[in-house]
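In response to reviewer comment 3 from the previous cycle, which asked for concrete evidence that the modeling workflow produces usable outputs, we include below a single protein chain processed end to end. The sequence was submitted unchanged, and the resulting structure tokens are shown without manual editing.
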Amino acid sequence: MPPASDQTCFAPAERAETAEIERQHAILSGHEIPVVLDAIPVIAMILNHCRQVVFGNRKFADVVGVADIREALGKRPGEAFRCVHAEKAPGGCGTGEFCAHCGAVRSILLGLAGKQNIQECNINREDGGRVEALDLRVSSSPFHLEDERFLIFSITDVSHEKRRRALERIFFHDMLNTVGGLQGLMEFLAEEVHDDLRPDAQLIHRAMAQLADEITYQKQLLAAETNELETNFTPLSPSDVLELVEATFQSGEQAKGKRIEVTNACAAVEFQSDPVLLRRVLGNMVKNALEATAPGGTVTLACDADEGHVGFSVRNDAVIPRSVRMRIFNRSFSTKGVGRGLGTYSIKLLTERYLGGTVDFTSAPGEGTTFRVRLPLDPEQPAI
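The workflow returned the following structure tokens.
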């Protein structure tokens, strides 16, 4: 443990004496809290008002490399984890210049002030003579026990998640640039090639456009799941939305031998929404309906409006089995095979988290299946 010091550049440097640490550890050991913390699979410790460890669960002991938790008592989190800045700070962990920008220290200070919180923390940790960079998600939850103030401080390593997201961004950026270039080239060739080759060139151009759209969709879905998706709400006409969705799918491969009909009961209505995300939602609804429709069947798109809301629905004659209905909005659940199951999941995710609406469906013999999306005319106004 670093020597006690009153010098600090950020958090208080004061430390409790060894006897006080042992007394607090004994208090905690006589309650059920350590048993609960030992049962959870994340790094968790209990800190006193001086930010010192007075208990750590098994996961904590394994990560910091101690056989007995008593070996880590009295240390601060950065010292236990061998943060490279903790040793350089005048009063140990939390007292150095770098500590003022540390998410872990900020989280602990907020927790000691009575505020439960979650922060992100980047730490450079000394590990066997080399420096290991970690991205952590930390949380602090204050509590009182026998009139003493303590803090449950937990740590989750999200380094792999951060690296995966960075690689995904690079992948999507490079893929869209490559496909966009090929799409532009095929558009030029479709105009310049000999007449007998033009249909094939146009087919390839449409395929490249579809590929670009699918890549963009996956990029949007991943951003939506991590709360990184940005929305752009603009005034929209239901008629224009329905016409665009119908035109997109009517001549597509999935609609061959099938009909798409549009019923518009809200032609004069105007509402605010994100056109890209709304087309994605309705497109998935139509795509699912077409896949479930037998040759010669019809998929019906409809719109209706009431005070404060506009609704879109997509209907087909097929009936969804009850066992499927129970799980239809679950992520990765699909009746179409491995690697599918994001369509209905994304409908609900995009509509409810980003468009401010609701999604439901009905499916019964003799009535077919109808998926409905209900959106507020103005998302900024409180719901009625």
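The chain has a mean pLDDT of 89. We consider this sufficient to address the reviewer's concern, and the full set will be provided in the supplementary archive.
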